[in-house]
Amino acid sequence: FEECEISIPNDWTLINLKNVLNTLANKNVCYGGPSQNFYPNISVRTAFKHYNRWRSINCSKLIDTSGLNCSSCNKIYNSLTQSKYRSQKGTMKRQLIISPRRMKTILTLKNKKKLIQKQLYRKKTRK
Length: 127
Prior knowledge:
The protein is mostly helical and 127 residues long. It has two domains: 93 residues, no CATH class; 32 residues. Helices cover 46% and strands 11% of the residues. The strands form two sheets. The chain has a two-stranded antiparallel ribbon with strand order 1-4. Strands 2-3 form a two-stranded antiparallel ribbon.
């Protein structure tokens, strides 16, 4: 975690500070998801690599003492396993983020390509 400077308001009393410290004492720091070593060369949108572990983008960092991971980091396992399976299988597709105008031109080009392929197929079958 990054270092941060904590400033305490002037109107805080010792009781307020005790309450905050007691609340923090009842919390654990989220351990994160699986180790990077289990999922090499994989990237997912919902997680990032943090100190040799995968961590969810929505990680709450502080959790109740009931577990080691937050619910968001627990869900990463499924995403990473699916990405690993798809990359090994060779069905991993890269998604492009394109503006609507460019997407329209790409779609028209794809449609023209299909039309030309149909025409060529018809010419071959007529001969």
